[in-house]
Amino acid sequence: MATEKLIELKTDVSHSSLYNADLAPTTLEERNWSTYNFAALWVSMAHCIPTYMLSSGLIALGMDWKQAILTITLGNLIVLVPMLLNAHPGTKYGIPFPVLARASFGTFGANIPAILRAGVACGWFGINAFIGGTAVNNFFIALFPAWKTFGGDINIAGLSLPAMITFIGFLVMNILLVYKGMNSIRKFENWAAPLVLIMTFILLVWIVNEAHGFGPIFAETGKLDTWDKFLPVFVPSLTGMIGFWATLSLNIPDFTRFGKGQKEQMLGQAIGLPPTMTIFSIMGVVISSATIVVYGKAIWDPVDLLLQFSNPLVLAFSLFGIIVATLSVNIAANLVSPANDFSNIAPKHISFKTGVLITGVCAVLIMPWKLLSDPSMYIFNWLNVYSGFLGPIAAIMIADYFILRKTELNLEDLYKEQGEYSYTKGVNIMAVLALLVGVGAALIGKVVPSLSWLFDYAWFVGFGASFVSYIVLMKVMPEPVAVEETVTEK
């Protein structure tokens, strides 16, 4: 949209309760993200500790290195499709995820997918903040051994006082960095991306040397040596791989709205997501397989593995790498989206920065250390359950934008209380019904044992059910569109 028209649009809707500067369409001057910026974004987000734990967790669950790499690669190729589809309107119209959701769910109903997405992001923010805080805690212990006993037997919600202090401290560090704005995030990701890869490569060289080469590592056969044993682990694990990035497949417009064009964001994401995720996961798989050879068991938590270093300086340097890796993914993937989502609830009262603070508080209350208690909890429960919510949301948004609207949106009406997207009191009932159908189909297997196979395919089942039901409902019983009343002079 031309700058003049965009200024006119902002003037026309600036009084609306659905508008604030953080949710407004980006200007041409703000669209400065190139192919490299998008690739660097994904390299930084993929090269993170949860990715490592995802791949190493598959080894801990019994897969061999080939089975784990196949599962991870296939999952990321699949999730790239909805990622690119939802990215398109962000670049075309310069709007963030919660504003885009207004087209399908309604100007008020958009808060439903926004809050669901924000809740997941709060969990992820807490997980990464805890991982980063643990690295900081061990970093302090390596430099100042007395730090480990600081506070004595004081225990807060299952964490020692030093662990809680470093967790909160790292969380605050994330918030302060995001407060500097999106451009600071772009700059941080640009240099953090290669550093994280280098640090992981150093860890890989060290553990392979400890295992006396690749031969003993690749000789490990895993426990899932038959199809009957492999399939029950593979299916929910594949769903978990997709669920891992199902969050970003929704709110990717929060980033692509800053793209110079469709070519830049599509090419950057295609280069940045599947290849780097696979490469980094291979490193995690090899490292975890090597720990079986070296230590007799799979160590799936990289912080636990790094504690095997006896040299304090080497340990401190390695933990610094984890701190950078965790910061790079957390600020991009887990703070930008929920901040926009919470702002969408009441744009005139909740700014982007206020949304960031709300995310931080929720991340503490979730107590993420409990989600990381074991790999089955992390992969089969956390990832699969929320994929059953996010798959249906992605399906509805994609069906609405590409199938029903043919990529054409009324940008101005996305910010109006009364307009094309206000439906029934701001809610598209058909979208809500389609969401319930998808979530119900995806998660019913969690409570009905005979239908457990549906839960194993939670993202796929939810996506398919909501995609079809939304199109059918909108064709058969379309929601009424409220049109702004015009007053004519007599």
TrEMBL record:
Membrane-spanning residues: 39-61, 68-87, 93-112, 124-147, 159-179, 191-209, 229-250, 271-293, 313-333, 354-371, 383-404, 425-445, 457-473
Domain of life according to the entry: Bacteria
Family named by the database record: Belongs to the purine-cytosine permease (2.A.39) family.
Tagged with keyword Transmembrane helix: yes
Alphabetically ordered keywords of this record: Membrane, Transmembrane, Transmembrane helix
InterPro entries (UniProt xref): NCS1 (IPR012681), Pur-cyt_permease (IPR001248), Uracil/uridine/allantoin_perm (IPR045225)
Gene Ontology cellular component list: plasma membrane
Annotated NCBIfam families: ncs1
Places the protein is found: Membrane
Membrane-protein topology: Multi-pass membrane protein
Record keyword DNA-binding present: no
Name of the molecule in the record: Nucleobase:cation symporter-1, NCS1 family
Pfam families referenced in this protein's UniProt entry, alphabetically: Transp_cyt_pur (PF02133)
GO molecular function (one): nucleobase transmembrane transporter activity
